[in-house]
Amino acid sequence: MSPDRLSLTFAALADPTRRAILARLTRGQVSVTELAEPHAMSLPAISKHLRVLERSGLIERSRDAQWRPCKLKAAPIKEAVDWMEQYRQHWEQSLDRLEVYLKELQKRNPPIQAKPHGRRKK
Questions:
Q1: 3-76 domain in CATH 1.10.10.10?
Q2: Predicted confidence band at 94 (pLDDT cuts at 50, 70, 90)?
Q3: Radius of gyration, alpha carbons of the chain
Q4: How does pLDDT run across 4-14, given as a tens digit for each residue?
Q5: Could you point out which of 17, 55, 77, 84 has its C-alpha 20 to 30 Å from the C-alpha of 100?
Q6: How many CB atoms lie within 10 A of CB 35?
Q7: Over the stretch 44-75, which tens digit does the pLDDT of each residue have?
Q8: Edge-to-edge strands, sheet with 69-72
């Protein structure tokens, strides 16, 4: 994935309304009107969000007479996940090394056990 396309994908995913639209599209294609229903915004505002999603390659819009369905195209999300995977592996390896180090420290300096508290006699 080119850095420009990756930037477009992340920019599109940065907005919660666009993420909600994508989540809805995972259940199948729907019209712009249906996508707008759960959001407290105008159709032109939803259309702006759809243009961002379309420009990033995350959705595809078509026309069938008066019906304008939108369909999810998940390939850019997979490409972004693949790109992020290298960083997940880095952090997992770093945390694994930290765990080994902490276990070594505990072996050298075991924690002090607190003495159990009994009842006090009067």
A1: yes
A2: confident
A3: 26
A4: 889 999 999 99
A5: 84
A6: 23
A7: 999 999 999 999 999 998 887 777 899 999 99
A8: 30-31, 69-72, 59-61
